[in-house]
Design brief:
The complex is a heterodimer of chains A (301) and B (530). Chain A is mainly alpha-helical. Helices cover 69% and strands 2% of the residues of chain A. The N and C termini of chain B lie close together (6 Å). Classes of the chains: A mainly alpha (301), B mainly alpha (530).
Chain lengths: 301, 530
């Protein structure tokens, strides 16, 4: 029976990388559990050192396997295995993946809104005769009324909120500009202008790194001078978890941008065929959009 | 629906053999087989845990285990049955059947598919390892909070909670990867001419399931991450001292947890109508109505979560909203029930094992649905909440509605997958043993719940003794009759009467146009749907 080779979907050959990657994740997860086991029972302190080594091993395996796996895909891409049909699979897959990432951030935004609108005001709204939280005002930002946490007395310190119009505003500008530079690079790619492409990508990477440096400075300032930590009640928890996970995604995005920059310099992309570029660009825009939500709801309002 | 060309290529034997075949495979049938096998094994692991529970509850007083171990068995039983037995079974069918049903050469992202499966064994290890570690004196066993992880207990709990948190993370990654793959496959790999509204119902069920997974699993991941930071890094998400709230966890958890029910059931609602039309020998009734109902249920699924904790405390308007929106689900579900019954109406029906399971499924799942309506009533729920009534209710939906549906699907597609017919006598025996002992296990639990017996307590008042005894005996019959299922599957895989291509007289759809078993690469050239 005649087969139309241009109608055939490329089913890749088997690969051991996913299975080893999973083993790496197992090692990382159980290593982490062992290394923090002493928090809950002191007699498990001896697990700390082996746990740490399992984490290092797991991380190394994960990084190596992702490197090898992506390497295989890049090789397949530049040898022309992926055409229009396969390309569409990657596109739809990337969109759905970004949606799932949005849902992950939605959980933390949900926690922020819940605490700010419901639980913190509620704690201040008890009948004054019976309330255990006498002087608690329930205003935002709040580190909570204080009390016992896991058998230890928790006393909220004086809380200063992170001002929106200092470093965070600069960070907003950095990320918005990087969104523009990556689009400028994309136009260059479509027009086959390699010089502009590489300049645009390099600028985007630089802006991403600048953002991360600013955020590092902000965290340092929060911990050392403002007394704002992960343990600063509702505000501290939501502030650091939201900005922290966002920063983690910016880090991943910057690493991906660097890979794409190298691939641009090697000339992997053509005006017609550059999903790798576009996928990372979409991811970068997603990180940008999440930051705007953070800037408005965590810093500004 | 007809196929213009179906290519049957000689198999390419360029893939490795032995263990490496399974570790490295990118073939949708191999991956589907691994999912289904894993699911069957974990079904027995989770099942043996609950038989331990039923043995303890056989008579009042503490006989076999201490309450902590009892709680651990209950929580891990639920997590295993939901995440490691039911979900992988549905994903296994998706992998096996969706490419065959839509005329695709394979799943769209085969390596990702392989990773989706190979995340599961590590998760199973994480779930069960704490039991083993406790035997060697490390830690105090698995999580003892029930599968719902409610704080403050889960914040205080030992090493087992951390293991469960990371197991949920890996299972979540696996589910999201599987969902991405299925969504992409359904949007990009359908045969030319197969429009969305010509897709088989199973594909529709899975498409909506995949959307629900992508929307809700990351929220669960976020919630257990907050739990982890509350446990180890001093955050106060779930502690009032810091302005947090333990009830917030219940909101986040059930925002995932309620759609999860439909995640488990929607794939079954997909293939049950196909089984009904096959054995009624007439076309499915109300295809469009069913598709729209599936969408309606999928949409309602994400806005009704708080009915799982009416008694935890909520303003009255919220109670009313969650009550009415929950009850609204019964409308599209009623549409589905009428379509299922009307599909059989005046058909020339025959009752092979898949059909027995499908018809029994409609009745038993119906009981599960109706008792759910009772629980959705805020006023009545105050009485039923956290009682054995709830346990019986969700076993009617998840064992009858989930597992028995999966069994119907297994018998339906087993001849296609293995190329042999299973033993019809054993299959029927398995059905009757399962159906009768299932009812004998859980009907007494309805009465126990109405009389006020709370769930998750290892001891009970003397007045509950008889019903518990009946329930325990029936549970052991139910458990051991599943060995017939395994025997039937294994002997069918190893040999037996050859199955024809169509297998069932009334079977329709692309998967029945391929030989049984289908060649290693199914549709190297896509069929054209008219």
């Amino acid at each position: 029976m005649a087969t139309h080779s241009n109608n055939q979907y490329y089913v890749p050959h088997g690969s051991i990388y996913p299975a080893i990657l999973s083993a790496g994740l197992l090692s990382l997860a159980s290593g982490f559990i062992f290394s923090v086991a002493t928090d809950k029972s002191k007699d498990l302190a001896y697990l700390q050192t082996p746990g740490k080594w399992m984490m290092y091993l797991g991380t190394a395996i994960i990084l190596f396997m992702v490197f090898k796996w992506m390497g295989t895909v890049i090789t397949e891409s530049i040898t022309g295995k992926y055409r229009k049909w396969e390309d569409k699979s990657f596109r739809v897959g990337m969109i759905v993946f970004i949606c799932s990432e949005l849902a992950f951030f939605a959980a933390f935004f949900g926690a922020l809104f819940y605490m700010r609108v419901l639980s913190v005001p509620d704690l201040a709204a008890f009948d004054p005769l019976f309330t255990p939280y006498k002087d608690f005002l329930g205003t935002w930002p709040s580190a909570g009324p204080g009390g016992m946490v896991l058998g230890v007395e928790y006393k909220p310190g004086l809380l200063q909120p992170m001002a929106a119009w200092g470093l965070p505003a600069i960070n907003t500008m950095l990320l918005l500009t990087s969104g523009a530079t990556i689009t400028w690079a994309h136009w260059a790619l479509i027009k086959n202008n390699r010089k502009q492409l590489i300049i645009g990508m390099a600028l985007t990477v630089a802006l991403g790194i600048a953002f991360l440096i600013c955020q590092g400075m902000e965290y340092h300032h929060a911990y050392t001078e403002m007394g704002l930590t992960l343990g600063s009640g509702a505000y501290g928890a939501t502030f650091f978890m939201l900005t922290g996970f966002h920063g983690f995604h910016v880090t991943l995005g910057t690493i991906m941008l660097i890979v794409i920059l190298i691939r641009c310099m090697k000339g992997h992309f053509t005006p017609e065929h550059h999903f790798g570029f576009e996928g990372v660009a979409w991811y970068w825009h997603f990180v940008d959009v999440v930051w705007l939500g953070l800037f408005i709801f965590v810093y500004w309002l | 629906m007809s196929t213009a060309t179906v290519a049957h290529h000689e198999e390419h034997h360029d893939h490795p053999t032995g263990i490496m075949r399974w570790l490295t495979t990118t073939n949708h049938k191999d991956i589907g087989t691994m999912y289904l096998t894993f699911s069957l094994i974990m079904f027995f692991v989770g099942g043996s845990m609950i038989l331990g529970i039923r043995a303890e509850l056989f008579k009042p007083g503490l006989q076999l285990m201490n309450p902590e171990f009892f709680n651990q068995l209950i929580g891990v039983h639920a997590l295993i049955m939901i995440f490691a037995a039911l979900m992988p079974a549905a994903t296994g069918f998706a992998n096996w059947m969706i490419p065959l049903q839509i005329g695709a050469p394979d799943m769209a992202l085969p390596r990702l598919n392989n990773w989706g499966f190979w995340l599961l064994p590590p998760s199973a290890i994480l779930l069960t390892l704490p039991f083993t570690l406790a035997m060697f004196g490390i830690g105090d066993g698995a999580l003892a909070t029930g599968w719902t992880f409610y704080p403050p207990l889960s914040v205080q709990g030992g090493i087992g909670v951390d293991f469960a948190i990371f197991a949920v993370h890996l299972l979540g990654i696996s589910s999201v990867m599987g969902s991405i793959n299925i969504i992409v496959t359904l949007f990009n790999m359908r045969a030319p001419g197969m429009t969305l509204m010509k897709m088989p119902m199973f594909a529709w069920g899975w498409l909506i399931t995949a959307f629900l997974l992508v929307a809700t699993i990351p929220v669960l991941a976020g919630a257990v991450t907050m739990l982890l930071t509350d446990r180890h890094f001093g955050t106060h998400f779930f502690n009032a001292a810091g302005g947090g709230d333990p009830i917030m966890f219940q909101h986040l958890f059930w925002f995932f947890g309620h759609p999860e029910v439909y995640i488990l059931l929607l794939p079954v609602w997909g293939f049950i109508p196909q089984i009904l039309e096959t054995f009624s020998r007439k076309p499915m009734y109300g295809y469009k109505a069913q598709v729209y109902s599936l969408w309606a249920i999928g949409a309602l699924a994400v806005v009704v979560w708080a009915h799982h904790f009416f008694t935890a405390g909520m303003p009255v308007p919220a109670l009313l909203y969650f009550m009415y929106s929950t009850m609204a689900i019964s409308l599209p579900l009623a549409v589905l029930f009428f379509c299922w019954i009307k599909t059989m109406w005046k058909g020339s029906m025959s009752f092979e094992t898949p059909m027995l399971f499908a018809v029994g499924w409609i009745i038993l799942f119906g009981i599960g649905g109706l008792t759910g309506l009772v629980l959705a009533d805020v006023a009545a729920d105050a009485q039923y909440h956290n009682s054995y009534f709830v346990v019986a209710h969700f076993h009617y939906t998840l064992f009858a509605g989930g597992i028995m549906g999966i069994m119907a699907g297994t018998y339906y597609w087993l001849p296609k997958m293995t190329g042999h017919m299973y033993s019809e006598t054993l299959g029927k025996l398995h059905f009757w043993l399962t159906a009768i002992s299932f009812n004998l296990t859980f009907i007494p639990q309805f009465f126990l719940g109405l009389a006020g017996m709370p769930r998750r307590i290892p001891d009970y008042a003397l007045q509950f003794a008889e019903f518990n005894m009946i329930s325990s005996i029936a549970a052991f019959v139910l458990g051991f009759s599943q060995l017939l299922f395994v025997y039937n599957i294994v002997s069918c895989a190893r040999g037996g009467k050859k199955a024809t291509d169509q297998v069932w007289e009334g079977a329709k759809g692309l998967e029945w146009t391929l030989p049984s078993p289908p060649p290693y690469h199914s549709f190297t050239e896509q069929p054209i749907i008219k």
